[in-house]
Specification:
The relative contact order is 0.10. With about 575 residues, this protein is of the alpha/beta class. An 8-stranded mixed sheet has the order 1-8-7-3-4-5-6-2. Helix content is about 45%, strand content about 15%. The model has no long low-confidence stretch (mean pLDDT about 90). Helix 1 runs antiparallel to helix 3, helix 1 runs antiparallel to helix 4 and helix 14 packs across helix 15. It has 3 domains: about 110 residues, Phosphohistidine domain (Glucose Oxidase, domain 1, 3-Layer(bba) Sandwich); about 110 residues, PtsI, HPr-binding domain (Enzyme I, Chain A, domain 2), CATH 1.10.274; about 300 residues, Phosphoenolpyruvate-binding domains (TIM Barrel), CATH 3.20.20.60. Bound molecules: phosphoenolpyruvate and magnesium ion (MG). Phosphoenolpyruvate binds next to strand 10 and helix 18.
């Protein structure tokens, strides 16, 4: 049994056998083969080893010719492994003794090898990547086209992967994927956000969990506390089943709040909205007692599809959300493509610093036909509906004005074409860059609403990649610099009577609810599963209490002090919830 600490990004407990997925989405199930088929498996294995050697020799030759001999020599290690008689014997012994397929033997033996390298000095630990590379090549030659993918699992699994893209996560077989344990990633990576929205317990930032288990190994994912337990003993499994049952009971107890308003004990109303990535999620927002959609991440329409969505695709998606919301407000955010939410076609031209590159509104302003298609669809779909349009990642007034002009142009085109459309759609912007937050007074005079995107605001203010596990401990909403910016934006909103909501992950974390209310946030938008707990906090405090909490927090100058204070304060209000200390 081994316990690994990571970052819990989607709460809940899941217990199931592992499926280890590599970058190419191979899942190597532990399939048993009868003894009489062992020789056939060994023949397949020998053929795959031979094919892999041929591949590498060709690759080495090409690299030598194009880049130089020195670089080509990196393949010597790969060839050495494939020629290693001891390794081959291990593969064969595993097939014969454990009665498994050659794929499973390759994966099991090489993962064991990788693990040994990880425990060696740094320069040898680097070899792990080569071992994975060989594993991948052998599997490719063994499995060919018939490999099992994330979309088609045949039984309940915990997925272990080095990394998953948001679209891979979104495309997973939800019936059988009970939990995720991921080497890479941070608290607000989009993969984490999708896992949360799907209600799949997930822990990221585990560094090398994929080297610790093979297919079939029992795994517990504790997304609430950010822990993964590999090969747990019976006692641990029983304890976790009990803990999971209590968690589920607590969550069910919140169902009673569904139809009650989010109002403080002294009568201040708070609006609780949901963030969605896919139209169907609008139903979960309402089921959880949300008042509408505060952030619809429309770029998910682009992820996982080969061709560009048409105006009708956009229109139908928006109409679906509008119909499900039955008159409730909906904030549609224009495309936030780029960085870790890349379009298929754009992925072929990788940027050096994608989070600082051509993402989001910048991409839209360069791809006007695509941007206009989306805006046309929004204006057409929102006739007679409470829809608002929001621009992401604005960093300067010019961008905002350009975007607004494009909306006007599209409306004029629709008018000319005599197509029914919305004439007075409110236009808002995300405040998710330090430049937007620092210039909030100027922006407030040009928009109908603000929404604080704390995921990116934290990333850009603290210079911490939101998806990089190596700096995940530096990514915190409790940093006084972040809180100072949030406070200034709320003040600007009050000064210019521009409503300010908050839609970053911070808004769905109960630890920050009192603080944000006390700072003046009256509209929260968060992942649907978090709505009931936030409502519970709102209904358990007075505004006076929240203001006191906020005043106190703003006197601290360190994020740890702030977090400690907020955790204690939240526990007093909501003792049943789990808050990691
Ligand atoms: C944010 O940055 O806080 C936000 C809500 O947008 P996204 O997570 O989609 O970048
Ligand atoms: Mg953002």
């Amino acid at each position: 049994m081994k316990t690994k600490k990571g970052i819990g990004v989607s709460p809940g407990v899941a217990i199931a056998p592992a499926a280890v997925i590599d970058a190419e989405e191979f899942d190597i199930p532990e399939r048993h083969v009868p003894a009489e088929m062992a020789q056939g498996e060994i023949a397949r294995l020998r053929k795959a080893v031979s094919l892999s050697k041929t591949d590498i020799l060709a690759l080495q030759k090409r690299t030598g010719e194009q880049i130089g001999k020195e670089t080509a020599s990196i393949f010597d290690f790969h060839l050495g492994l494939l020629k290693d008689k001891v390794l081959l014997k291990k593969f064969i012994d595993t097939i014969m003794e454990d009665h498994v397929t050659s794929e499973y033997a390759v994966a099991a033996v090489l993962r064991g090898y990788a693990k040994e390298f990880l425990d060696m000095p740094q320069y040898l630990a680097e070899r792990v990547k080569d071992v994975y590379d060989i594993e991948k090549r052998l599997l490719r030659n063994l499995v060919g086209q018939s490999r099992q993918t994330l979309q088609h699992l045949d039984s309940d699994r915990i997925l272990l992967a080095h990394d998953l893209t948001p679209s891979q996560t979104a495309g997973m077989d939800r019936k059988h994927v009970l939990g995720l344990a991921i080497d890479a990633g941070g608290q607000t990576s989009h993969t984490a956000i999708v896992a949360k929205a799907l209600g799949i317990a997930a822990v990221v930032g585990l560094n090398n969990v994929t080297a610790e288990a093979t297919a079939g190994t029992m795994v517990i994912v504790d997304g609430t506390r950010g822990m993964v337990i590999i090969d747990p003993d019976e006692k641990t499994i029983a304890e976790y089943r009990d803990y999971s049952r209590r968690q589920v009971e607590f969550i069910h107890s919140l169902d009673a709040l569904r139809d009650l308003p989010a109002v403080t004990m002294d009568g201040h109303e708070i609006s609780l909205l949901g963030n969605i990535e896919f139209p169907v999620e609008a139903s979960s927002v309402i089921e959880k007692g949300g008042d509408g959609i505060g952030l619809y991440r429309t770029e998910f329409l682009y992820l996982g599809v080969e061709s560009e969505p048409t105006e009708e695709d956009h229109y139908n998606a928006y109409k679906e959300v509008i119909d499900l919301c039955k008159g409730r407000p909906i904030v549609i955010r224009t495309l936030d493509l780029g960085a870790d939410k890349q379009t298929q076609s754009r992925a072929r031209t990788p940027e050096r610093n994608p989070f600082l590159g051509c993402r989001s509104i910048r991409f839209c302003l360069q791809e006007l036909p695509m941007f206009k298609t989306q805006i046309r669809a929004i204006l057409r779909a929102s006739v007679d509906a409470d829809v608002r349009m929001m621009f992401p990642l604005i960093t300067n007034l010019r961008e905002l004005r350009q975007a607004k002009t494009i909306v006007r142009d599209v409306a004029e085109d629709l008018e000319e074409d005599r197509v029914e459309h919305r004439h007075d759609i409110p236009l808002g912007m995300m405040i998710e860059t330090p430049s937007a937050a620092l210039q909030c007074n100027a922006f407030a005079q040009e928009v109908d609403f603000f929404s604080l995107g704390t995921n990116d605001l934290i990333q850009y203010t603290l210079a911490v990649d939101r998806a990089n596990e190596r700096v995940a401990q530096l990514f915190t909403a409790a940093h006084p610099a972040v809180l100072g910016l949030i406070k200034d934006v709320i003040r600007a909103g009050q000064r210019y009577e521009v409503p300010v909501s908050l839609c970053g992950e911070m808004g769905g974390d109960v630890v920050f609810t009192m603080l944000l209310m006390g700072l003046g946030i009256t509209t929260f938008s968060c992942t649907p599963p978090a709505i009931p707990e936030i409502k519970k906090v709102v209904r358990s405090v007075t505004m006076e209490q929240a203001v006191k909490v906020a005043r106190r927090v703003m006197t601290f100058d360190g994020d740890q002090e702030i977090l400690n204070y907020l955790r204690v304060a939240t526990r007093e209000v909501l003792p049943e919830t789990y808050i990691s200390m």
